[in-house]
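S1.2 Input.
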Amino acid sequence: MVIHAYPEDYLHSAQRIMGDMLDYASDSYELDPDDFFQMFLISDVAYQFQTGNPGYVAGKTGCELVKEVIRQSGLNLPDLPEEMYLDKSPEYWAGHALAFYQWYTGKTFQRIYKAVSVRDILNMYPAYHEMDIMQFVSAMDEKLADYYKETNLKRLRQYAGLSQSELAELSKVPLRQIQLFEQRQRKINHTKAVTVLMLARALGCRCEDLLEI
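S1.3 Output.
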């Protein structure tokens, strides 16, 4: 089971803040959404947000986050008025949906962005912005699975020079379960912690190295 970085009580606020952040960066500062998001990833703001720092998922505004990202990037841009509008842009929806996906899956923004750019998410707007958010989650899961074709478990098993059967014998985890993890038919993030621990010990890695985050 995924352990969320912050309580669901903060989720609506976090979605609104990230939506406002992308909207403000794009509309007021006229920054390319992907250029800005790459700045966001390099800055400390992404880490603070995805780990659930209350000051970032509830305390600051989206406009304040944009200015913090700009400051940390070293860009010399004017201090624009912090204005948001009632009409919500595709950029707002992209940030709103992305914040939910990151919270729901526990994946880092960096891992998500390597597979799906902000422009890709914006291209999903016409089809998905009126759908239930879980439809967006399913579509994103497919995109990430297509990009990350090999699971961390398979990669680390092969690096250790072990077959699936050998890993099953060493770890005492059933062979079929290992196969399902590697085929993505069962999510290792949702399995029992003791199972992940047994696999990690057999592979000589950390438990978190096996998770798809």
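S1.4 Remarks. DSSP finds 15 helices and no strands in the chain.
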